[in-house]
Amino acid sequence: MSEGDEGDEGEKGDEGQGVREFAARLGLPGLFDVHTHFMPERVLRKVWAYFDSVGPLTGVEWPITYREEEDRRVALLREFGVLRFTSMIYPHKAGMARWLNDWAAGFAARVPECLHTATLYPEEGVAAYVGEAVGRGAQVCKVHLQVGDFDPCDALLDEAWGILSDARVPVVIHCGSGPAPGTYTGPGPVGRLLARHPRLRLIVAHMGMPEYADFLGLAERYDEVRLDTTMAFTDFGERFAPFPQRETKRLRDLGDRVLLGSDFPNIPYPYVHQLQALERLGLGDDWLRGVCYRNAAALFGPPGGSGGAGGIDGSGAAPGSQGIHRYG
């Protein structure tokens, strides 16, 4: 290891202490992050290559803060005191989803803190492999409408959505139009999906940026809609999609359905900055406790518990690319 590498390790170690102190000050055992990325290495390297080139394409530089090997990335989250996290995977074409699901099942088996994650794509056989993933214990599904460039109301997906809805498996869905719109992003397609599957447990990634107000409205209309904080409120996010101050009261009132997300490792700033950005909203410690731990523990079951996706028994209670990558 070079001298420079040693200094970098020290800085990340100090950051870990800062993240742990944030949770401890709130009286939390740690953090529950519903939006982190672990993927097959060759897929992740392609994602990183995209981010390396995103500056010339959009005018926004996007350095990867945690460009580490897989074992080191897992170790960093543990050092930060992140008790549960996810392996957000997503296909950009047909034929990828089943393979990604197999990989994610193996990753969750060897990394107990990781929620068993699955994904889907509108293709023949999608209902079969989504059913298989649920049967194997999938706890969360990731869908990326920008990268996949598909309509969530595609008839090929209807049975798969029904399976996820009946099993009460939450779906983290990238559906906002920031920082650049996709063919099927925005509140319209998701609103039509919810009209067909109103019990679907959707977690809107990135708070739906930049259509924050519209996605807050969907959460107000549908009891099972939640939002994750990924990149929202950070200095980086505020540069191109500032959260409207007039919506802060709605954000506070929906506090039990806002979940911590970070986009680790693909973020251009330290992990702790997402937490600082949430704190400076001024919505209070109890709101922060819900967002950073309690809400996700209620949905998925507490770390170390036996529960799956928010009570797969049906009670809903917690047991004891073609597309535009931009961000995940």
Strand proportion, as a percent range, falls in 5-15%
* Overall radius of gyration: 18 Å
> Rough shape?
globular
Helix count from the secondary structure assignment? 13
Class inferred from helices and paired strands: alpha/beta
**Helix share bin:** 40-55%
Largest sheet: 6 strands, parallel
Order of helices and strands: HEHHEHEHEHHEHEHEHHEHH
**Mean pLDDT, all residues:** 89
- Pick out the low-confidence regions: 1-7, 306-327
Strand count: 8
Lateral strand order in the biggest sheet: 3-4-5-6-7-8
- N-to-C terminal Cα separation, in Å? 31 Å
Give an overview of the whole structure:
The chain is α/β, with parallel strands linked by helices. It has 13 helices and 8 strands. The strands form 2 sheets. It has a 6-stranded parallel β-sheet with strand order 3-4-5-6-7-8. Helix 9 links the parallel strand 6 and strand 7. Helix 5 packs parallel to helix 7. The protein is globular. The N terminus and C terminus are likely disordered.
Characteristic key phrases:
two-stranded parallel ribbon, 328 residues, 8 strands, six-stranded parallel sheet, disordered C terminus, 13 helices, disordered N terminus, alpha/beta
Q: Helix and strand layout, with pairings?
A:
Elements: H1 3-25, E1 31-32, H2 41-58, H3 70-80, E2 82-84, H4 97-110, E3 117-119, H5 126-135, E4 140-144, H6 145-148, H7 158-167, E5 171-174, H8 187-196, E6 202-204, H9 212-221, E7 226-228, H10 235-240, H11 248-253, E8 258-259, H12 271-279, H13 285-300
Parallel strand pairs: 1-2, 3-4, 4-5, 5-6, 6-7, 7-8
